[in-house]
Amino acid sequence: MKQLPLMRMELKEAPGVLKPREVIISGVGKVNTKSGITLVELIVATMIVGILATLALPRYIKTIETTKAREAIASLEQIKHGEIVYREEENTYWPIGATETNVATINFQLGLFLDTREPNWDYSVTATAADKFTATARRTGGGNQNETITLDEDGTEGGTWSP
Question: What pTM was estimated for this model as a whole?
Answer without folding.
Answer: 0.69
